[in-house]
Each structure stands twice: as structure tokens, then as C-alpha cells.
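Sample intake sheet
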Amino acid sequence: MAKILMVVAPERFRDEELFLPKEEFEKSGHQIFIASTKIGVCIGSRGGNIIVDLLLKDIHSNDYDVIVFVGGGGSKVFFNDLNAINIAQEMNSKGKIVAAICLAPVILANAGILKGKKATVSGQEVKTIENKGANTHIQVLL
């Protein structure tokens, strides 16, 4: 099964954006690893917490199959974080799955990997990712 790296902000990550996908990944037999910019307890915006034992700066793209950047207000700390941008670029260049939830697609846009791709982001950042080349226009067929 896949080795999935989930990246959370040290505080104010969106709880359900970590815990619900994590639970589903684990049910499917995948190995989950959690990284952040600090070791120890990271607190979500809804009061949940997770113990982190991996620093984002120490991550090697060859060690994981998938990376998921968890959203929430705290994810803004990664928008221009060179470690986050570099790992996203490395994993993308190796054809690995690179994902982001809620506000976190801004990280991928800043890494240059949303150019020409359909993407979504929390409302207040739509223009940000569009300015980096993402296509946020959704076509609805009736």
C-alpha cells in the first residue's frame, strides 16, 4: 500500500481535513505519516490535536508515494515556505500524487504545479491560484 505524507500547520489546521481523510486512508491499508514545521502536538482549529514527529524540512520525496497538504487558516504558513514548495515540486516531477485541501492549493499554485490544471480552493484564494495559471472555472451541464 501507499506511504501517504500529510502536512499540517503547527496550529489552526482544519481538523476534519486531517482526521477524515486519514481515517479513510488507514481503512484502505495505507501508511500515514504526519509532518509539520514543529515536532510535538499540533492543534487544529476545532480543538483536535495530532502528535507530529516529522519536520517538513527533513522530508525526502523518495520516501513517500503521496503528499497531502491539509488546509485551514494555519496552512497559510506554507504558502511561501520553501520546504513545502520544494517537496511539492519534487513529488510532482516524479509523477507522485500531490494534493491539497481547502486553502492549501495555494501552496501548489506557488510551486507552479497548477498551471493549466483544473483546481479548486477556498473562496478567498480563487484569484491567487488563477493568477498562477490554475483553471477554476467549473462547467455545469444540465
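Comment: The two ends are 38 Å apart (CA to CA). The longest strand covers residues 31-36.
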